[in-house]
Write a structure and sequence with these properties.
By secondary structure, the chain is an alpha+beta fold. The chain contains two helices and six strands, in the order αββββββα.
Length: 156
């Protein structure tokens, strides 16, 4: 009688244990990577928005306009999803960004909330429970958030 080579039960159990250990180590690291990706995305977008405001200020200064800072950053309504933020449909003359950020109420998304200062407040959602509100001041041209750990993570 011929026997065929095969794995023994002990070899299969060891393989399953090793795969389980690797999964237990890898899964928490992958979850942290996703949160880090949302944070890096927010950082780059905040930087791009601030650069866009500075570019608009420079363009208006070169044109000799009295008010160099943009009066507003977009024409989007508050609390609407899938609308263009930081963008006007004017042939790229006063756009803050070259292409818009579409508003969405999800992790890594931007929204314009209702409430006090609504035309100039933008909310970035880090996670389901953490939002960071940025305020645009047309007088100074600043795009800032309250000084807290989440704001510092997005701006430094």
């Amino acid at each position: 009688m011929r026997t065929r080579p095969a794995f023994t039960m002990i070899e299969i159990v060891f393989a399953i244990v090793i795969i389980g250990i690797l999964a237990a180590v890898a899964i928490p690291r992958l979850a942290a990577t996703r949160d880090d990706a949302v944070l890096v995305k927010g950082k780059s977008q905040v930087s791009a928005i601030r650069s866009g405001i500075a570019l608009q200020r420079s363009l208006r200064l070169m044109r000799g306009e009295a008010n160099q800072n943009p009066a507003t950053l977009d024409g989007a309504a508050a609390n609407t999803e899938n609308t263009a933020l930081f963008f006007f449909n004017d042939g790229n003359q006063s756009n803050i960004l070259e292409s818009p950020i579409m508003s969405r109420n999800a992790d890594g998304g931007w929204m314009k909330p209702n409430g006090a200062g609504a035309p100039f407040v933008y909310r970035f959602r880090l996670t389901n429970a953490i939002n960071v509100d940025f305020t645009y001041n047309p007088g100074t041209g600043s795009f800032t958030c309250p000084d807290n750990a989440n704001c510092r993570n997005l701006t430094q």
